[in-house]
Design goal:
Elements: H1 6-12, H2 26-37, E1 47-53, H3 57-65, E2 76-83, H4 88-105, E3 109-114, H5 119-126, E4 136-141, H6 147-159, E5 172-174, H7 188-195, E6 206-211, E7 214-220, H8 234-253, E8 256-261, E9 275-284
Parallel strand pairs: 5-6
Antiparallel strand pairs: 1-2, 2-4, 3-4, 6-7, 7-9, 8-9
Helix pairs in contact: 1-4, 4-8, 7-8
This protein binds flavin mononucleotide.
Flavin mononucleotide (FMN) binds at residues 14-15, 17, 111-114, 135-136, 157, 160, 162, 198-202, 234, 237-238, 241.
């Protein structure tokens, strides 16, 4: 993909699993490192770090993913991790997605590779501190131009139900949580950007409620697609990813707004018990 503007990059990004075997040149890798060091935090007190791996990536993927790892052929991977206790997974998703979208804007292909179900093993394999949280690696490089490469990504998108454009009313609710709706024109570009966000197993756990001039973000508490156990906490990581898409869209469109992370105790509009309140965006019009 050629370079794209920031907003366009959010809309067009797709996960790529087959890559050109040629590594990126050193100047481009330097740009990647710079991007990784310049992300905006959600919780400034959390410590975020990113390592760039160019050796042994394919073997690490096989160790982490088994046979499926052999299908992913990237020459490089980012290992982003976070140390801290305040909303760590949401903050991690928020920071990593900023890197991913900006790589897309540079014409670099990416794919998240989830590690939450075996986080301890990933920490050991990658030599991370014992208190590091790692929700996913990000593999990256130039997309393979071969038919086989495109076919694999097309197949995965079909299997995961990502082949058609997202239906906004599935995710957006106006004034009340039982009123699915099209977003008003002023919010539409943000919601369009949000629903293009990647999510683990394409679970798309996000729900947005526009009420009293606040955009509340919820994630579904339980998502069968993630699978059992620790994988259920991808909802927090995916929530951070979707928040980053909205922040980047605001930057691209010259809009101002501020996220506030929520807890179970924060007063939020009435919502179904299956929805976990995650954050609220106040927009300065
Ligand atoms: C946290 C996370 C973990 C993911 N893990 C994997 C993975 O292990 N293997 C894989 O092929 N894709 C993985 N993906 C990619 C998703 O399947 C993909 O984002 C989703 O199907 C939507 O497709 P898109 O990114 O092309 O829009 C992951 C995505 C996220 C956000």
């Amino acid at each position: 993909m050629a370079r794209a503007s920031l907003y366009q990059a959010i809309l067009v990004r797709r996960s790529v699993r087959r890559y050109d075997s040629q590594p990126l040149d050193e100047a481009t890798l330097e740009q990647v490192r710079a991007l990784a060091h310049n992300v905006q935090p959600l919780v400034p007190a959390n410590y975020f770090s990113v390592r760039l791996h160019s050796e042994g990536v394919r073997q690490d993927l096989v160790t982490l993913l088994g046979a499926y790892g052999r299908l992913i052929t990237s020459p490089h991977a980012l290992v982003p991790y976070l140390q801290g206790t305040v909303h760590p997974l949401t903050d991690l998703g928020y920071r990593v997605e900023q890197i991913v979208v900006r790589l897309t804007a540079l014409g670099i292909a990416t794919c998240y590779i989830g590690t939450l179900p075996h986080e301890e093993r990933a920490r050991d394999l990658l030599g991370l501190p014992s208190d590091a949280r790692i929700g996913a690696l990000v593999v990256f490089g130039r997309a393979a131009e071969t038919m086989g490469g495109r076919a694999l990504d097309g197949l995965v998108r079909c299997v995961l139900g990502r082949a058609k454009p997202p239906v906004l009313e599935r995710f957006f609710f106006l004034e009340r949580a039982d009123c699915p709706a099209q977003p008003p024109a002023s919010l539409r570009p943000l919601i369009e950007a949000a629903v293009r966000a990647p999510s683990a197993c394409n679970a798309q756990p996000w729900r947005f409620l526009w009420h009293d001039r606040y955009l509340s973000l919820f994630v579904l508490r339980h998502n069968p697609r993630y699978g059992p156990g620790a994988a259920q906490r991808y909802n927090l990581y995916d929530g951070g990813i979707v928040m980053a898409n909205i922040t980047l869209a605001m930057e691209a469109l010259g809009m101002q707004g501020r996220w506030q992370l929520l807890s179970e105790e924060t007063l939020v509009p009435p919502h179904p018990p299956a929805w976990l309140p995650l954050a609220q965006l106040s927009l300065a019009w």
